[in-house]
Amino acid sequence: MSTSLTGGCQCGAVRYECSAEPLFTGNCHCRDCQKATGGAYVPAFAVPVQSVKITGDVKYYESRSDSGNTFSRGFCPTCGGRVFGKTSGFPQFILITAGSLDDPSRFKPAMDFFTSSAQPWDHMNPDLPKFPKQPKA
């Protein structure tokens, strides 16, 4: 992906612009992400928090992740669209959901993680590296 990534929620009340290249990209298959999306996984990428300019009101829901850290899911209070994620384990990063990109085709996942929680009907790309839990930083 090249710099200047833009996106937002479904209704447009929350928008962002990111000036950094992703530090990592991947598909999270943890149960928290499954429950939050109603799907098999969340495709997301991490960038330095200072590289993202956010406009609009973002609400956060906090939960305890499988790693024991606090995970905060950022969403639009108007349409409910999930856009961001933050973890107490890596406060210097913000996660951005790939589906929130204006051009989601720019997202290229590099791994699947928390695959130990993946559902049997979740057919993962066999070419991507798999991590049963969170990969080591």
Explain this structure.
The structure is a single chain. The protein is mainly beta. The chain has one domain (5-117): Metal Binding Protein, Guanine Nucleotide Exchange Factor, Chain A, CATH 2.170.150.70. Helix content is 5%, strand content 37%. The chain has one helix spanning 31-37; strands at 5-8, 15-18, 24-28, 42-48, 52-55, 59-64, 70-75, 82-87, 93-97, 112-113, 130-131. It has an 8-stranded mixed sheet. It has a 3-stranded antiparallel sheet with strand order 1-2-5, with no helix packed on it. Strand 7 and strand 8 (82-87) form a beta hairpin. The protein is globular. The two termini are 20 Å apart. The model has no long low-confidence stretch (mean pLDDT 93).
